[in-house]
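Worked Example 4.2. Read the sequence first, then its structure tokens.
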Amino acid sequence: MAKTSESPLVLENFIGGKFLPCGSHVDSYDPSTGKVHCKVPDSGKEEVDAAVAAAKEAFPDWSARSPEQRAQVLYKLAELLEANLEEFVQAESKDQGKTLAFARTVDIPRAAYNFRFFASSVLHHTTECSQLEHLGCLNYTVRCPVGVAALISPWNLPLYLLTWKIAPAIAAGNTVVAKPSEMTSVTAWMMCKLMGQAGIPPGVVNVVFGTGPKAGDALVGHPDVPLVSFTGSTATAQRITERCAPYCKKLSLELGGKNPAIVFADADLDQCIETTVRSSFSNQGEICLCTSRIYVERSVYPDFLQRFVAAAKKWKTGVPSDPSNNNGALISKEHLEKVRGFVALAKSEGGTIHCGEGVDELDLPEQNKCGYFMPATVISGVSDGSRLMQEEIFGPVTCVSPFDAEDEAVARGNGVRYGLSATVWSRDVGKVHRVAKRLQAGLVWTNCWLVRDLNLPFGGMKSSGVGREGGKDSYHFFTEVKSITIKH
């Protein structure tokens, strides 16, 4: 629907290849101004039932197409996203609060690349064969699409993480019902406009907008949805697991993190500090892989802390459209208050706030003074038992603490319920391998951060998730393996 300068954008659900209006809506805010900029459908069981029915109807024809035929459609969708890149960049920044620069260099290019990557990778999977000559039998496996996939994506990297799910699901021959976050729905709605142009048949991709308790709950509990891929909080994942248990659904859950960086005395501190500022504060700290605990060997701790705080002070926060800013606004007023609450807790526990919240003032234009901005915040002097060191903050806040020995660093790195990612900084190759192996994390980076090969498994241990996604892993998740024995 068209938007006038006076009225907010009104989104519609995309079901069976058509945009359908919804009777009620929820407000979505521009985080940089604090004003409503969008009305998102408040969908429930009725809309979800219609979307699942459309996906179920489209499944036989779509799954019967060859991988090459499906890949061509995904390539076309990638091209269309790139052709409309700047429009998507502007919308993602306005909807999520991130800087235009981050949306332009990370979110939207990666969304297009996800379609291109899975279009290619689906052509290169092979299956197994074994011979049982003494029984006169040949055994082989085939992989079949599962059916209707429920895909629920979060608000921090909206289109990026939605396409990370849609691309492998439909490449493998499934049809999907997707539910983006109600706080960041605009770019998903914009992508729906490109589906017909890309040649995606009606019903193959359906997008239902709404909240988790209404739309999400109806979707994950639907008896005709055999598979759920979810990225979001551990608490929501527990609820999804309970809803799916009666149906024994396939689940892929990519959840929170409380990711440590372990900095040894022999690390290249210049490279380490530059990268760790980025890993702590990128995208307002609203990336599940962000570093929120930094353990530094005691002999270099004073030097590291001084230099790290100085670098964090240079990490600029402000209006998302200003190319000199590193960070924009946090997603919502409620989330900003939650993150600020952690900083207040640190103060009450005797921690030191070196920079950021409550220390450094932000200079914002008048129209942005009600936005949800928070500067990069560095804290020290907090115990490992504190909620600051145990709970996911998901904001531009990181805590720094000294350690004395390798075993201590590993034990403290592992001393939380999460296990998504970790970084290790050392010039000692043996130490790097040793520590990486011992850390309880699905991804460990050494002397770098966020270097991603999409072929590799992505996911977490402990409360950070169930399952893995990536080239081969996504293909295995979105298909069922079948063993066939032929007696000759």
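Now turn to a second chain, presented in exactly the same format:
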Amino acid sequence: MTTTIHLQQPLLPSEAPSLPENESIRQQDAGAAFVLESKGEWYHAGFHLTTAIVGPTILTLPYAFRGLGWGLGFFSLTVMGVVTFYSYYLMSLVLEHCEKAGRRHIRFRELASDVLGSGWMYYFVIFVQTAINTGISIGAILLAGECLQIMYSSISPDGPLHLWEFIAMVTVVMMVLSQLPTFHSLRHVNLASLFLSLAYTFIVVGACLHAGLSKNAPPRDYSLESSKFSMVMSAFTSISIIAAIFGNGILPEIQATLSPPVTGKMFKGLIMCYSVIFATFYSAAVSGYYVFGNKASSNILKSLLPDEGPALAPTWLLGLGVVFVLLQLFAIGLVYSQVAYEIMETKSADVNQGMFSRRNLIPRIILRSLYMIFCGFFAAMLPFFGDINGVVGALGFIPLDFILPMLLYNMTYKPSRSSFTYWINVIIMVVFTGVGLLGSFSSIRKLVLDASKFKLFSDDVVD
């Protein structure tokens, strides 16, 4: 078997897929012309990628280590990081190749349909992508509402306000922010989001170290589940959590915001993003698991602020961390709403009239506000949405981020079946298909086990 890596071997013109997307058609597409306008630089893509991947979900990493232990936890975190970086890089190469062939794709669904030559793939991707993006938007509003509730409870422990009222407040703010017209217009918001992710991560790391070195340090136990079956299920649940944390499912839409030609720009954006990932993911996982072991909560802030007993770190510091998390959740909700907005404007806007013309502005305000109200309503109604998102993540992120990019690359560049690249891609697809199926099973199992805790419009978010 040879070890030649084919990363830049283009198709011959005669081998190019037969579904071209010419620029004249795109010029009549309001979703492309408005929401996905292409004006960005590589560092703007880095801001968008970082917001899409590095979010408050990293505070669940100590909990993920709890189901894996030190060795397997480090191994899984590292493998997921390497595989997703490789996966996103391959997808960027496929997008660059299509652009050079005169078919610049700005939507994941169009890329998959073109390269794989299958109409059903278009609908598969749009279904999975919509489920993921809507789920994350709902989750972001729910978590932001919970952050407000935490701050309110610390000031007024017996106050009359309920979780759903804080969710309503967040929804109103999101309705206003959702009127930023294009993905590119979020670049400054997402730069702030990048710094916020670094800020609250280092606050949490500092708080964990303070807790671990204090006289009230919790006892440390790193043992796994006693039952073999429970141990295996917990391990696959943890692997699914880590896979979902690394996922984004919108790389083609992010690459669409780059001004053409895009060659090499996304690679630089990925380097920026994964530099932040390295600084935040490992520090949060190690510090939280080191201090709390197998008692780590699914949100390490809850471990630092136990229901009983004093806070394990200065409350003002933890409060500042909660504020930073809250602010970043607005950016995350906006990023993952862009695919929905693009679909809406493709159908509702008139590209021949200005982006801010009355003809386009009024439908935009109404449709985006309704979308946010929809997400806010479900966030208030389902304060156990984290368990549902676990299933969505396993069934959604793994196909879009761990399987399709490898398949798209092999179909586009056609590396030799004796090459190292071809077999690495096949192995990744096979392994993560299995991980996705087992992760879905374990996530559904957790959903069933937690079902007794579910209560519509509850004041308590299911842990």
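Notes for the reader: The longest helix spans residues 119-155. The mean pLDDT is 86.
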